[in-house]
Amino acid sequence: MAKKKKGPRQIVGLQCTECKHFGYVTEYNKNNEQLKKQADGEGTFPISKYCQRCRKHTEHKTLKKLK
Ligand SMILES: [Zn+2]
What we know:
The chain has one helix spanning 30-40; strands spanning 9-16, 22-29, 47-51, 56-65.
């Protein structure tokens, strides 16, 4: 049984911005993301990841929030 987790961890999908391939599901900590935005002015995403369809590293953006 999957237990519902409490806390700031947010699960999102990552989509290649070049071919729109949906390749990753990841989770990140919303609190850390906010701190990072305040510190650097930009967040974790878009993030450079290897895309299997493009066969190279491309920018991936968050596609949507998953449960
Ligand atoms: Zn791609």
